[in-house]
Each structure stands twice: as C-alpha cells, then as structure tokens.
Hints:
Blueprint: E1 12-25, E2 28-41, E3 45-49, H1 56-63, E4 72-81, E5 84-85, H2 91-97, E6 102-105, H3 119-130, H4 135-148, H5 154-158, H6 167-178, E7 185-189, H7 197-214, E8 217-222, H8 225-231, E9 234-239, E10 242-248, H9 249-254, H10 259-266, H11 271-277, E11 322-323, E12 332-333, H12 336-341
Parallel strand pairs: 3-8, 3-9, 6-7, 7-8
Antiparallel strand pairs: 1-2, 1-4, 4-5, 9-10, 10-12, 11-12
Helix pairs in contact: 3-4, 4-6
Adenosine-5'-triphosphate is lined by residues 25, 30, 32, 50, 52-58, 71, 223, 294.
Amino acid sequence: xxxxxxxxxxxxxxxxxxxxxxxxxxxxxxxxxxxxxxxxxxxxxxxxxxxxxxxxxxxxxxxxxxxxxxxxxxxxxxxxxxxxxxxxxxxxxxxxxxxxxxxxxxxxxxxxxxxxxxxxxxxxxxxxxxxxxxxxxxxxxxxxxxxxxxxxxxxxxxxxxxxxxxxxxxxxxxxxxxxxxxxxxxxxxxxxxxxxxxxxxxxxxxxxxxxxxxxxxxxxxxxxxxxxxxxxxxxxxxxxxxxxxxxxxxxxxxxxxxxxxxxxxxxxxxxxxxxxxxxxxxxxxxxxxxxxxxxxxxxxxxxxxxxxxxxxxxxxxxxxxxxxxxxxxxxxxxxxxxxxxx
Length: 342
Ligand SMILES: Nc1ncnc2c1ncn2[C@@H]1O[C@H](COP(=O)(O)OP(=O)(O)OP(=O)(O)O)[C@@H](O)[C@H]1O
C-alpha cells in the first residue's frame, strides 16, 4: 500500500512529541534522547545545533528508524510524518518514507556513493527504483538535477567516478541524489563539515536555493551556529539529549536565553577579525568542561556543571522546556534561571 497522504498536503511535515530514546551499551543504559519536541513545517529550514555527543544523530536515527533493534532499550513518544506515527510503522512502510518522502544527506558524500560506479548511473538507479521513470527519462532527470545543483558540465560529472570529483562536487552530486524522488524533507547531517570553508558556504547556499526553488523543507544538523545563522529559519539547541532552547533563528540570535545557547553563539568566528587581523590574534571561545555522562545524568539541569550562572537550585531542579510568553513567536527555554529573571 502506498503511504497515504502526500506530506505536501500538510503544513506540518514532521511533528515530534515527547521522544525518548535509550540504548543498551556494555556499560549500561544510555538516555540519549529525552523529552524531545519539535516540528518541521512545509517549506521551512530547521536546524538542530549542539556539540558532539549532544544527540543530533540519534534524533535523525530515531526519525528514520535507523537504530539497530538490538541497541534499543526504549524508543517512545510520537514521530508523526504526514500524520502517521513512524514509531509504529513496519520496515516496508518506513522504506516508502525514506528516500521518497524524507531523504538523507550525510556528512561525508563517500558514505552515500559507491566508488566503483559512475555517479550518473547511481543517480539513475535511485530514480528508476523509486519512481516509474524509464532509464532514459531518469538520465534526463539526473542531468537536469546536476545542472540545478550549479554544476557547469553535468554530462561530464554524470560520467565521472566519485574519486574523480572534488569534495564539494561530490556533495553536490549527493544533494542531487537526495532530490531524485522529489522528497518533502531533506535531512542533512553536518553536510558541510568535511568541506573547505569557501565550499561550505557554496553548499549551504545551495540548500537555501533548493528550499526556495523546490519548496523542499530542510532539517539541518550542525555543531556550528554560523551555519544556523546563514540558512535556518528555526532552531532547536540540543544539549545532552534534550532541547534546551527552541524558536525562530532571529529571536534566538538576538535574545539567546539559555546559557548554553549564549556560549554556542560566542563560538561563531567573527569573520572581520579573521580577515583583518589574522586567525591567530583572537582565540576562538571554547565552552569549558564536558557533556555529562549519559549513564549518570545529574539530578537537576544537565548543563549546570558547566554553567557560569548556575545556582544551587540548578543542581537539583529539573528544568522543563517552557514557552517564553514575552515573545510573540514560539521561543522556548529549559532553564530555571530564565524563569526567575522575567
Ligand atoms: N552505538 C552507540 N553505542 C554507545 N553509545 C552511543 C552509540 N551511538 C551514540 N552513542 C552515544 O549517544 C550520545 C549521542 O550521540 P550522537 O551521535 O547522537 O551525538 P551527536 O550530537 O550527533 O554527535 P556528533 O556531532 O559527534 O555526531 C553520545 O553520548 C554518544 O556517545
């Protein structure tokens, strides 16, 4: 049976409520996600930002049901795609969602490309497998997609093997592949972190172009608030498996409420001093300390041990993600101090 309604008929493409994921490890049970709530709407670019280990990839794996069964201790809540809860869908139905409704662009293009086949053949195969197109129609579509990715000589790239292409070109090819079945949502997992800085900007701008021209929603995963600022409309700041701040990007950059968000924003390099003074004159800000051990989470706020503002209550009271009424938009923060100060 075909997956019922097209996501494009819904304004909310992805709705996650109270998602909690625990995994089994040799050391014990890890709470990798807890109380995760967010939505991605039609035509929106949403970002999830956080340090390494904060749970960004686990969120993607939970959405796409890519967690190995033997690893899962708990996987509960609701992950609705076009109103259907993927948590209860079987593997056949999930395959209809993956690739067709939601496609994934990984950090390293080589994980998505087979080194032994020309890239054109790989794009054509996906189109033929997932749509009713013939091989020649699929080739036409593949060439058109490559051209739309800003590739000047699509025929040459179509005939190339992955190792003959630069990192930036490979990532453009993978992004073209992700669009092969006209998905409603692309999930891009750190899609630029393996690229040179100038190529990173070009690839980010390509996502913006795709969003504007195709109307495809994008969920981008990053550790870099600079990426968020450049392309996203909405952001969830993630720390130790929880969303600690959520809302419109403009609101959060202008009024970061959570001390962790404030710290992440300080980590964005100021391009002016890089170009004017040289990279060695001003060290980049680093957040001191480490993420808590997910086997022994603190009783109170998970960021409390690294927070320069933490008070006694922060170590004992579990903060909830609460909408801040003073903002018109849905700006939510998980911090007891924010609650007190307004
Ligand atoms: N297979 C696994 N076995 C044990 N622990 C795991 C496994 N996969 C993830 N984790 C742990 O789950 C937590 C969340 O990991 P996750 O990969 O989602 O973080 P991330 O924010 O995506 O980090 P990165 O940016 O480094 O990819 C981390 O503490 C990580 O060590």
